[in-house]
Protein backbone atom coordinates (compact mmCIF):
# COMPACT_ATOMS: atom_id res chain seq x y z
CA UNK A 1 0.00 0.00 0.00
CA UNK A 2 0.96 3.65 -0.39
CA UNK A 3 0.21 6.90 1.40
CA UNK A 4 -0.32 10.32 -0.13
CA UNK A 5 -0.49 13.54 1.89
CA UNK A 6 -1.39 17.03 0.72
CA UNK A 7 -0.47 19.38 3.57
CA UNK A 8 -1.95 22.77 2.79
CA UNK A 9 -1.98 26.00 4.71
CA UNK A 10 -5.51 25.50 6.03
CA UNK A 11 -6.15 21.76 5.63
CA UNK A 12 -4.04 18.59 5.59
CA UNK A 13 -5.43 15.60 3.69
CA UNK A 14 -4.17 12.03 3.68
CA UNK A 15 -5.01 8.99 1.54
CA UNK A 16 -4.04 5.34 2.05
CA UNK A 17 -4.46 3.22 -1.08
CA UNK A 18 -3.51 0.02 -2.84
CA UNK A 19 -1.24 -0.02 -5.87
CA UNK A 20 -4.24 -0.38 -8.18
CA UNK A 21 -5.77 2.82 -6.86
CA UNK A 22 -8.34 1.55 -4.39
CA UNK A 23 -8.56 3.98 -1.46
CA UNK A 24 -8.50 2.20 1.89
CA UNK A 25 -8.64 5.24 4.15
CA UNK A 26 -8.79 9.02 4.30
CA UNK A 27 -7.91 11.50 7.01
CA UNK A 28 -7.88 15.26 7.48
CA UNK A 29 -6.36 17.72 9.92
CA UNK A 30 -5.59 21.41 10.23
CA UNK A 31 -3.02 23.31 8.19
CA UNK A 32 0.62 22.22 8.10
CA UNK A 33 2.35 25.18 6.46
CA UNK A 34 5.13 26.35 8.74
CA UNK A 35 5.04 29.84 7.19
CA UNK A 36 1.36 30.76 7.54
CA UNK A 37 -0.74 28.18 9.36
CA UNK A 38 0.27 29.05 12.88
CA UNK A 39 0.09 25.40 13.89
CA UNK A 40 2.47 22.53 14.59
CA UNK A 41 3.35 20.71 11.37
CA UNK A 42 4.22 17.39 13.00
CA UNK A 43 0.95 17.35 14.94
CA UNK A 44 -1.21 18.11 11.89
CA UNK A 45 0.49 15.40 9.84
CA UNK A 46 0.09 12.95 12.71
CA UNK A 47 -3.64 13.57 13.05
CA UNK A 48 -4.23 13.13 9.30
CA UNK A 49 -2.10 9.97 9.13
CA UNK A 50 -3.78 8.39 12.13
CA UNK A 51 -7.26 9.08 10.77
CA UNK A 52 -6.45 7.67 7.33
CA UNK A 53 -4.66 4.58 8.60
CA UNK A 54 -7.42 3.53 11.00
CA UNK A 55 -7.21 -0.25 11.18
CA UNK A 56 -4.93 -0.56 8.12
CA UNK A 57 -1.95 -2.85 8.67
CA UNK A 58 0.90 -0.37 8.84
CA UNK A 59 3.44 -2.97 7.73
CA UNK A 60 1.66 -3.07 4.35
CA UNK A 61 2.61 0.57 3.65
CA UNK A 62 5.74 0.53 1.48
CA UNK A 63 5.94 4.14 0.32
CA UNK A 64 4.54 7.53 1.18
CA UNK A 65 4.72 10.84 -0.64
CA UNK A 66 4.07 13.86 1.56
CA UNK A 67 3.74 17.23 -0.13
CA UNK A 68 3.36 20.58 1.58
CA UNK A 69 3.01 24.25 0.86
CA UNK A 70 5.99 26.15 2.22
CA UNK A 71 8.33 23.15 1.89
CA UNK A 72 10.54 24.52 -0.87
CA UNK A 73 13.92 26.16 -0.37
CA UNK A 74 14.69 26.94 3.24
CA UNK A 75 11.52 25.18 4.39
CA UNK A 76 12.47 21.85 2.81
CA UNK A 77 14.51 20.41 5.66
CA UNK A 78 12.10 21.71 8.29
CA UNK A 79 9.17 19.95 6.64
CA UNK A 80 11.24 16.82 6.00
CA UNK A 81 12.12 16.60 9.71
CA UNK A 82 8.50 17.11 10.82
CA UNK A 83 7.24 14.58 8.25
CA UNK A 84 9.78 11.97 9.34
CA UNK A 85 8.81 12.41 12.99
CA UNK A 86 5.10 12.08 12.18
CA UNK A 87 5.85 9.05 9.98
CA UNK A 88 7.64 7.31 12.82
CA UNK A 89 4.98 8.34 15.34
CA UNK A 90 2.41 6.59 13.12
CA UNK A 91 4.42 3.37 13.25
CA UNK A 92 5.34 3.43 9.57
CA UNK A 93 8.57 1.96 8.23
CA UNK A 94 8.16 2.27 4.46
CA UNK A 95 10.02 4.75 2.27
CA UNK A 96 9.14 8.40 2.94
CA UNK A 97 9.42 10.98 0.17
CA UNK A 98 8.75 14.68 0.74
CA UNK A 99 7.92 17.06 -2.09
CA UNK A 100 6.33 20.49 -2.47
CA UNK A 101 2.64 21.15 -3.00
CA UNK A 102 3.46 21.82 -6.67
CA UNK A 103 4.26 18.20 -7.53
CA UNK A 104 1.24 17.02 -5.59
CA UNK A 105 -1.18 19.45 -7.24
CA UNK A 106 0.10 18.81 -10.76
CA UNK A 107 -0.11 15.03 -10.23
CA UNK A 108 -3.67 15.48 -8.98
CA UNK A 109 -4.71 16.97 -12.31
CA UNK A 110 -2.88 14.79 -14.82
CA UNK A 111 -0.80 11.66 -15.18
CA UNK A 112 1.35 13.43 -17.80
CA UNK A 113 4.80 14.73 -16.99
CA UNK A 114 4.79 17.98 -19.02
CA UNK A 115 2.53 21.00 -18.57
CA UNK A 116 1.77 24.02 -16.41
CA UNK A 117 0.24 24.21 -12.96
CA UNK A 118 -1.65 27.35 -11.94
CA UNK A 119 -2.52 27.31 -8.26
CA UNK A 120 -4.57 29.82 -6.30
CA UNK A 121 -5.77 28.78 -2.88
CA UNK A 122 -4.36 30.16 0.33
CA UNK A 123 -1.27 30.98 -1.78
CA UNK A 124 -0.76 31.40 -5.52
CA UNK A 125 1.86 30.46 -8.10
CA UNK A 126 2.49 28.97 -11.51
CA UNK A 127 4.98 26.24 -12.38
CA UNK A 128 6.04 24.70 -15.67
CA UNK A 129 6.80 20.98 -15.49
CA UNK A 130 9.13 19.08 -17.80
CA UNK A 131 9.47 15.33 -17.33
CA UNK A 132 7.75 15.61 -13.97
CA UNK A 133 10.15 18.22 -12.60
CA UNK A 134 9.58 21.92 -12.00
CA UNK A 135 11.53 23.76 -14.68
CA UNK A 136 10.30 27.28 -13.99
CA UNK A 137 8.29 28.64 -11.08
CA UNK A 138 6.72 32.07 -10.58
CA UNK A 139 5.41 33.55 -7.31
CA UNK A 140 4.39 31.41 -4.36
CA UNK A 141 6.36 33.73 -2.08
CA UNK A 142 3.86 33.82 0.77
CA UNK A 143 1.15 36.22 1.84
CA UNK A 144 3.53 39.03 2.78
CA UNK A 145 5.76 39.02 -0.32
CA UNK A 146 3.63 37.61 -3.12
CA UNK A 147 0.87 35.04 -3.74
CA UNK A 148 -0.82 37.50 -6.10
CA UNK A 149 -4.43 36.55 -6.77
CA UNK A 150 -4.62 34.05 -3.91
CA UNK A 151 -7.42 33.79 -1.35
CA UNK A 152 -5.30 35.60 1.24
CA UNK A 153 -4.34 38.28 -1.33
CA UNK A 154 -8.05 38.80 -2.02
CA UNK A 155 -8.89 38.82 1.68
CA UNK A 156 -6.23 41.41 2.51
CA UNK A 157 -7.46 43.71 -0.25
CA UNK A 158 -11.00 43.34 1.02
CA UNK A 159 -9.87 44.40 4.49
CA UNK A 160 -8.04 47.39 3.05
CA UNK A 161 -11.17 48.42 1.16
CA UNK A 162 -13.30 48.04 4.29
CA UNK A 163 -10.95 50.18 6.36
CA UNK A 164 -10.84 52.81 3.62
CA UNK A 165 -14.65 52.85 3.50
CA UNK A 166 -14.89 53.20 7.28
CA UNK A 167 -12.44 56.09 7.61
CA UNK A 168 -13.56 57.97 4.49
CA UNK A 169 -10.61 57.30 2.20
CA UNK A 170 -12.55 54.92 -0.04
CA UNK A 171 -15.98 54.35 -1.48
CA UNK A 172 -18.80 52.53 0.26
CA UNK A 173 -18.86 48.78 -0.26
CA UNK A 174 -21.00 45.82 0.76
CA UNK A 175 -17.79 44.25 2.04
CA UNK A 176 -18.11 46.36 5.20
CA UNK A 177 -21.15 44.37 6.33
CA UNK A 178 -19.60 41.11 5.14
CA UNK A 179 -16.45 41.67 7.20
CA UNK A 180 -18.47 42.78 10.22
CA UNK A 181 -20.47 39.56 10.11
CA UNK A 182 -17.39 37.42 9.50
CA UNK A 183 -15.58 38.76 12.56
CA UNK A 184 -18.77 39.42 14.60
CA UNK A 185 -18.04 43.13 14.94
CA UNK A 186 -20.74 45.51 16.19
CA UNK A 187 -21.44 48.31 13.69
CA UNK A 188 -20.96 51.82 15.06
CA UNK A 189 -19.27 53.63 12.13
CA UNK A 190 -16.55 55.12 14.30
CA UNK A 191 -12.82 54.75 14.68
CA UNK A 192 -13.56 51.96 17.16
CA UNK A 193 -15.10 49.85 14.41
CA UNK A 194 -12.03 50.27 12.18
CA UNK A 195 -9.81 49.30 15.08
CA UNK A 196 -11.98 46.24 15.70
CA UNK A 197 -11.41 45.16 12.09
CA UNK A 198 -7.67 45.64 12.50
CA UNK A 199 -7.62 43.73 15.78
CA UNK A 200 -9.65 40.84 14.32
CA UNK A 201 -7.45 40.59 11.23
CA UNK A 202 -4.22 40.43 13.21
CA UNK A 203 -5.69 38.01 15.76
CA UNK A 204 -5.79 35.10 13.30
CA UNK A 205 -3.00 33.35 11.34
CA UNK A 206 -2.52 34.93 7.89
CA UNK A 207 -3.88 31.82 6.16
CA UNK A 208 -7.24 32.40 7.85
CA UNK A 209 -7.69 35.68 5.99
CA UNK A 210 -8.23 33.57 2.88
CA UNK A 211 -11.67 32.71 4.26
CA UNK A 212 -12.74 36.22 3.28
CA UNK A 213 -12.23 35.45 -0.42
CA UNK A 214 -15.63 33.73 -0.90
CA UNK A 215 -17.31 36.80 0.62
CA UNK A 216 -15.57 39.00 -1.96
CA UNK A 217 -16.66 36.65 -4.74
CA UNK A 218 -20.26 36.72 -3.53
CA UNK A 219 -20.25 40.52 -3.26
CA UNK A 220 -18.89 40.78 -6.80
CA UNK A 221 -21.63 38.49 -8.06
CA UNK A 222 -24.15 40.86 -6.44
CA UNK A 223 -22.60 43.75 -8.37
CA UNK A 224 -20.54 45.48 -5.69
CA UNK A 225 -18.01 47.62 -7.62
CA UNK A 226 -15.22 47.34 -5.07
CA UNK A 227 -15.47 43.55 -4.87
CA UNK A 228 -15.73 43.33 -8.66
CA UNK A 229 -12.48 45.25 -9.08
CA UNK A 230 -10.69 43.08 -6.51
CA UNK A 231 -11.76 39.90 -8.34
CA UNK A 232 -10.82 41.31 -11.75
CA UNK A 233 -7.38 42.29 -10.46
CA UNK A 234 -6.89 38.84 -8.89
CA UNK A 235 -7.67 37.15 -12.21
CA UNK A 236 -5.35 39.54 -14.04
CA UNK A 237 -2.47 38.80 -11.65
CA UNK A 238 -2.99 35.04 -11.91
CA UNK A 239 -2.96 35.12 -15.71
CA UNK A 240 0.16 37.28 -15.63
CA UNK A 241 1.82 34.71 -13.37
CA UNK A 242 0.78 31.97 -15.79
CA UNK A 243 2.22 33.88 -18.75
CA UNK A 244 5.48 34.41 -16.86
CA UNK A 245 6.37 30.71 -16.76
CA UNK A 246 6.21 30.51 -20.55
CA UNK A 247 4.81 27.68 -22.69
CA UNK A 248 4.68 24.33 -20.94
CA UNK A 249 3.11 21.69 -23.16
CA UNK A 250 -0.53 21.05 -23.88
CA UNK A 251 -1.80 20.46 -20.32
CA UNK A 252 -2.76 23.13 -17.81
CA UNK A 253 -3.78 22.04 -14.33
CA UNK A 254 -5.75 24.31 -12.02
CA UNK A 255 -5.52 23.90 -8.26
CA UNK A 256 -6.71 25.69 -5.14
CA UNK A 257 -10.07 26.95 -3.92
CA UNK A 258 -9.99 30.24 -5.85
CA UNK A 259 -9.72 28.42 -9.19
CA UNK A 260 -11.73 25.29 -8.43
CA UNK A 261 -14.75 27.02 -6.91
CA UNK A 262 -17.25 28.76 -9.21
CA UNK A 263 -16.91 32.52 -9.14
CA UNK A 264 -15.72 35.59 -11.05
CA UNK A 265 -12.01 34.89 -10.58
CA UNK A 266 -12.29 31.30 -11.74
CA UNK A 267 -14.41 32.26 -14.76
CA UNK A 268 -12.04 35.00 -15.86
CA UNK A 269 -8.94 32.83 -15.46
CA UNK A 270 -10.50 29.89 -17.32
CA UNK A 271 -11.59 32.18 -20.16
CA UNK A 272 -8.10 33.66 -20.33
CA UNK A 273 -6.46 30.24 -20.40
CA UNK A 274 -8.82 28.99 -23.09
CA UNK A 275 -7.87 31.99 -25.24
CA UNK A 276 -4.18 31.25 -24.72
CA UNK A 277 -4.20 27.46 -25.12
CA UNK A 278 -7.45 26.55 -26.92
CA UNK A 279 -7.69 23.65 -24.45
CA UNK A 280 -9.81 23.58 -21.27
CA UNK A 281 -7.66 23.31 -18.12
CA UNK A 282 -7.84 20.23 -15.91
CA UNK A 283 -8.89 20.52 -12.25
CA UNK A 284 -6.69 19.10 -9.49
CA UNK A 285 -9.51 17.64 -7.45
CA UNK A 286 -7.60 15.61 -4.86
CA UNK A 287 -4.06 16.60 -3.89
CA UNK A 288 -3.70 13.67 -1.50
CA UNK A 289 -4.70 11.36 -4.34
CA UNK A 290 -2.10 13.02 -6.54
CA UNK A 291 0.53 12.37 -3.87
CA UNK A 292 -0.60 8.75 -3.67
CA UNK A 293 -0.25 8.47 -7.46
CA UNK A 294 3.32 9.74 -7.15
CA UNK A 295 3.95 7.10 -4.49
CA UNK A 296 2.57 4.35 -6.73
CA UNK A 297 4.83 5.47 -9.58
CA UNK A 298 7.87 5.61 -7.32
CA UNK A 299 7.20 2.18 -5.83
CA UNK A 300 6.49 0.43 -9.13
CA UNK A 301 9.04 2.33 -11.21
CA UNK A 302 6.56 2.67 -14.06
CA UNK A 303 4.09 5.35 -15.23
CA UNK A 304 0.82 5.27 -13.30
CA UNK A 305 -1.93 3.77 -15.51
CA UNK A 306 -4.71 6.28 -16.30
CA UNK A 307 -7.35 4.12 -14.60
CA UNK A 308 -5.31 4.02 -11.38
CA UNK A 309 -4.72 7.77 -11.53
CA UNK A 310 -8.45 8.34 -12.02
CA UNK A 311 -9.34 6.21 -9.00
CA UNK A 312 -6.88 8.01 -6.77
CA UNK A 313 -7.64 11.57 -7.81
CA UNK A 314 -11.40 11.35 -8.35
CA UNK A 315 -11.18 12.39 -12.00
CA UNK A 316 -13.23 9.35 -12.95
CA UNK A 317 -16.14 10.80 -10.98
CA UNK A 318 -15.55 14.47 -11.78
CA UNK A 319 -13.81 14.73 -15.16
CA UNK A 320 -14.41 18.46 -15.75
CA UNK A 321 -16.31 19.87 -12.80
CA UNK A 322 -15.31 22.21 -10.02
CA UNK A 323 -14.88 20.89 -6.50
CA UNK A 324 -16.54 23.40 -4.17
CA UNK A 325 -15.30 21.63 -1.06
CA UNK A 326 -11.58 21.95 -1.66
CA UNK A 327 -9.67 24.51 0.44
From TrEMBL:
InterPro entries: ATPase_BadF (IPR002731), ATPase_NBD (IPR043129), Euk-type_GlcNAc_Kinase (IPR052519). GO terms for molecular function: kinase activity. Residues 3-295 form the ATPase BadF/BadG/BcrA/BcrD type domain. Keywords: Kinase, Transferase. It comes from the Bacteria. This is N-acetylglucosamine kinase. It comes from Actinoplanes ianthinogenes.
